[in-house]
Amino acid sequence: MHDHHASYNLALVLLSFGIATIASFTALDLAGRVRASTGWVSHLWLAGGAFAMGTGIWAMHFIGMLAMEMGANVAYGLSLTVVSLIAAIATSAIALVVVQRGRLTLARLGGGALVMGGGVCLMHYVGMEAMHIDGRLRYVPSLFAVSVLIAVSASAAALWLVFRLNRSRRSPLWQRLVAAVIMAVGISGMHYTGMAAAVYPPGAVLLESGGLSAQQLAVSVALVSTCIMLAALLISLFDAHMTSRNAQLAASLQAANTELKQMIYRDALTQLPNRLLLEERLEEQLAGSATFALFFVDLDRFKQVNDTLGHHVGDQLIRQAADRLRAAVRESDTVARVGGDEFIVLLGESSGREEADTLARRLVSTLDNPFQIGSSVVKVSTSVGISLYPDDGRDKHALMIHADAAMYAAKRLGRNTYQFFEPDMTSIEERRIKLERRLRLALDSDTLDLAYQPKVEVESGRITGVEALLRWKDDELGIVEPSEIIPLAEDTGLILPLGEWVLHTACRYAQRWHEETGQALFISVNISAIQLNSRHFVETVKKLLADTGLTPTCLELELTESALVLNPDIALEALNELRALGIAISIDDFGTGYSNLAQLRRFPIDRLKIDRAFMAHAVTDAQDAAIVKAVVALAQSLDLQVVAEGVENEQQLALISQLHSHEYQGYLFSEALSGEELKRFWAAHASRGQAVDPSDEGR
Question: Which segments within 596-680 are labelled E, that is strand?
Fold first, then answer.
């Protein structure tokens, strides 16, 4: 019988093509799992995949053979049938090994296609030989060659598709289905071409009772192979799902870790490195041997911005300051935020004193420019302290402590500058820390005190009032001067409670004076710029006046010029409210600040006080004398009274009298006196007929 006369069962042909498609789809999917896995898991996928894929190809082959209607039942030899199955599984294993690792080069593709094609042909033709027939099968050479060519070509196409669809990520389902159909066409084409090449001896087909019947083979092959392939597909799909889910979980975990690391190592407001990350980078640089510099940067009077304009403005100021600092340094440098208004700049390796000096100038300059925040223009400055490695410390703590001490030294020099660390700064910083602790204790225990210095009318010599001055004698520190107390209080946030205590104590003293003597005591109290710009300052003054019972016209508030220029609009609003109450306003230490004539005309000012620094040499230095004359002339042009501070001799008194100044105070008349000493001094002065004029009340 010749295959030219054979016919095929269409249903079984379609079934064989369907199984070829399933086998191809399984091969594509399992190849992806083999490539994606590693270690012993990869070997398991290789073994299971080869078995499922080989079983599918082998099943397609035998169902295709059963599709040929040969006019009699055909039996198959068990041994050769098993050999053909083993050949299919081995061929599948070789294919999976080829695609398991590396790139698909032309040589690799060609070699793999030849091996796979040879294996498929071996499976097919060994399976053909398994048929129990008399005689030998012969093959048409041309068709045999075509079947081999199709097998090799189909193998090459299969390898290329597997690589193409499993390069980096799982390909879409429709692409894998199309590829499976293409591969099935190749496999089926090879099979049916090989069937067509067979030439059967006439009458040679026999029924062998010892072999497998065609019906048994069809049922077992179709069911078992399909179950195996579907099971493999389901396992592969489940594994792919779990892998995808694990990948998503891993990605989520990575994102969470990144966010957590961001939270741990970054400042939430500015996204700058925080202290933890700074210290890690500092330790890395300390592990080397190169020199470097550490900067401690502090914004001057930042708390005042928060108190007057609100924390939202303060936050914007911090962000803009951080941006300026970032722009001022190199990429190799680190800018970190370590506190509310405190930053640390860590210079990269091999940076010495010269580079540090250049950068310090740049930092001070860039932060000295005004900040535009919404509709507000905010002006702050900065104080910078610098420590050098290894000269100023060999560990991170020493370097940061010494840079901090240098920063406070810069503040003591007037702020808006920088200082390199010097050994004696450590003891100064230790005193500052002790001062803060003792000052807090003094406020809590009410152990501070006030002294009162009389003001005198130049023309008549009458006492017109007193100025309340802070005094502090601590059990451990001894006498602490106001010049040391006030800057410390401003930097530590104690100025508001301290200022409120001074104002309350002075008002209470003046009211008791009035109650005891029947005379009004006109009292002046110094006010910090931070107090004036505090949102609740006016309400605080009203409450203190109500609590003490002092008439507002007996109170004068003395302000420095810096209090006016810091936030002019806020200062103007507060001073107008205070002046409306009847409280007098004077500018203290006039001539040492940055105010100008236009600003002075805006504010409800009653008096200008000439700073004692000008009065000290006014009679011996022509320049100081010119300044004093200019201040007096300015005050007279604005219809303001003039008070000269620090008058210590008759020559100074004669000068201000000649210039028609209104009042003076200083050691020439009296030093600052305690409350009880003032009463005795006042009584002695009154006995000479020079007491305060009651008409001065409310002046």
Answer: 607-610, 641-645, 663-665
